[in-house]
Amino acid sequence: MNIVVLVKQVPDTATERKLNPADSTVDRASSDGVINELCEYAIEEALLLKEKHGGEVTILSAGPDQATDSIRKALSMGADKAVHLNDEALHGSDSLQTAYALAKALGTIEFDLVILGSESTDARTGVVAAALAEYLGLPQLTLANKVDIDGSSVRVQRQTDDGYDVVEATLPAVVSVVEKINEPRYPSFKLIMAAKKKPVTKLGAADAAIDTALVGVANATTAVVDFAEAPPRAAGTVVKDEGNGGVQIADFLAAKKFV
Amino acid sequence: MAEVLVLVDHADGEVKKVTLELLTAARRVGEPSAVVVGEATGDITAKLGEYGAEKVYTAPAELNDYVVAPKAELLATLAADKSAVAVLVSATAENKEIAGRTAVKLGSGVLTDVVDLTADLVAEHSIFGGGVVAHARVTTGVPVVAVRPNAIPAEAAQGAAVQEAVTVELSEGAKAARITDRVKESKGSRPELAEAAIVVSGGRGVGSDDFSVVEGLADSLGAAVGASRAAVDSGWYPNAFQVGQTGKTVAPNLYIALGISGAIQHRAGMQTSKTIVAVNKDPEAPLLEIADFAVVGDLHKVTPQLTEEINKRK
Ligand SMILES: Cc1cc2nc3c(=O)[nH]c(=O)nc-3n(C[C@H](O)[C@H](O)[C@H](O)COP(=O)(O)OP(=O)(O)OC[C@H]3O[C@@H](n4cnc5c(N)ncnc54)[C@H](O)[C@@H]3O)c2cc1C
Ligand SMILES: Nc1ncnc2c1ncn2[C@@H]1O[C@H](COP(=O)(O)O)[C@@H](O)[C@H]1O
């Protein structure tokens, strides 16, 4: 069972996030980069599957030099090796272009299963996994809160609006996970030290046969027309409950015509 | 006028409100053509017509037996056959996936979580948890746009609603991920979370799986019930009701948060609510910063009083 986990570095949600005025791409310099939270769940699931079925876990990340921090973190959780797709031509790629580039990079790796997070905290588009399955022509088992492998078949519980669907397919396949699936482990000191020696293969666009006319902000399939900070919410009223807090809310709701 | 495809969300023979909102947005751009997967009953067709659908394409329910790919094949095929100028879907987790695959097939681009749309297909987004408003457009091919529920008010306008059955020859690839079972978590008779005008949510502060204090207030207001991840993870309320980054994004007219601290991941799913009310015993809880009205106190005292007061004033 060889598993590739797609890991994205994103600006820390706890810090203020900005867009670059020049090209409207996410300003990665203005806030600390961290591993996308949901990617940690994807890594954890890959490690659990490896513990059960054997094989290797490879991290694949597309991003600038700083992404190495997240790659190291992923390796220190227990992944075996990593591939870092890093090319100036990819800067500012939108989610479909990213899916295309990742599909191409996956062409250089042997795998039975690709696992992604279902969403990233910065883009929040939630389309990469589906678009990737489309590009690869592989079964899409996304939004999984449970994954089981049995021989050459994979079965997941796919989270739906009102419950879940049971979905089955044959490997190789693309799986994306939601945070219900597991509890990501903390890297041990020993693993952190070991991670420093694990192999990270650098990949340029040409190495992955990526057509550079199809990626990057200049060729993006979507363009930001303009953006502005949203006007801050007007400061609200905060009262301490002196025994009539419920009545006070009712008064507020009545004034707003909700009751 | 050119056709705009609108993927219809329906359940139990009823069209969801968000579809009417999409039809309203579609009319700004061209002539709405509704796309129904599964049976388009008389009621469904009539409703789609009331909101401006000129055509109603119906596709076999079999498309629902596999994950996402068949609907993307349907939309991409229809978009090409009918020379559609745009494809609109609601911004649910599943429909965003459909949108992504459709755009790949069409060689176009996709815009997700859109809160407004102009006649020339410039979309408004609210990003970074509501902190930034951005406008964007698709630069190549037929734009595929996923619009958030409750963002664009539905307005009625009669359309012809001419039915046309479409057959799709599904590729083997589209059938690769089979749905073998569907499990529904009980919902009761309350309005649906993503569509409700009022949402009352409970968090860890509720303290147990007895959510009746939350449900009581919700019922007095005819509201949907939501929950924070902490409440869901504790097993107090089903997963389908989680509000937030990895749950549902809601933007109701009124959002009431009971015993929810307001972590960034929770706020990401409710920050664009028009009016926010919070009850929390901690005056430092981050949710109070974005609340229009907040009471610092014990929700188990404040909420029953509020519910009683509302029932009294009705
Ligand atoms: C990848 C990822 C995704 C996530 N996605 C989501 C998501 O979609 N939705 C989500 O909600 N969270 C999500 N979270 C979790 C989020 O970070 C918070 O942990 C969660 O929202 C906390 O829930 P809470 O506010 O109910 O609990 P807490 O943070 O524990 O807050 C409880 C609050 O209740 C108050 N309280 C306690 N008792 C009372 C009382 N008697 N009366 C009044 N107030 C009281 C306390 O003062 C406190 O402010 C996600 C986290 C991660 C890492
Ligand atoms: N640049 C990237 N490198 C590696 N994986 C990525 C990248 N962008 C997105 N992903 C994967 O796609 C998932 C969903 O991202 P998104 O659709 O952008 O919200 C993430 O959780 C990652 O697993």
Ions, cofactors and other bound molecules: flavin-adenine dinucleotide, adenosine monophosphate
**Secondary-structure-derived class of chain B:** alpha/beta
| Protein chains sharing the most extensive interface | A-B, 85 and 94 residues
Total helical elements of chain A: 6
Radius of gyration of chain B: 21 Å
Our measurement of the CA-to-CA distance between the termini of chain A, rounded to an integer number of angstroms, reads 59 Å
Order of secondary-structure elements of chain A:
EEEHEHEHEHEEEEHEEEH
Q: Rg of chain A to the nearest angstrom? A: 21 Å
Kindly provide the name of the CATH class of chain A.
Alpha Beta
What's the CATH topology label of the largest domain in chain B? Rossmann fold
Q: Under the CATH scheme, which architecture of chain A would be assigned?
A: 3-Layer(aba) Sandwich
Q: Give the integer mean of the pLDDT values of chain B.
A: 95
Q: pLDDT under 50 segments of chain B (min length 5)? A: none
CATH topology of chain A: Rossmann fold
Integer tally of domains of chain A: 1
- Please trace the helix and strand order of chain B, writing H or E for each element: EEEHEHEHEHEEEEEEEHEHEHEHEH
Subunit structure (chain B): Heterodimer of an alpha and a beta subunit.
Family (chain B): Belongs to the ETF alpha-subunit/FixB family.
Organism (chain B): Nocardiopsis ansamitocini
GO molecular function (chain B): electron transfer activity; flavin adenine dinucleotide binding
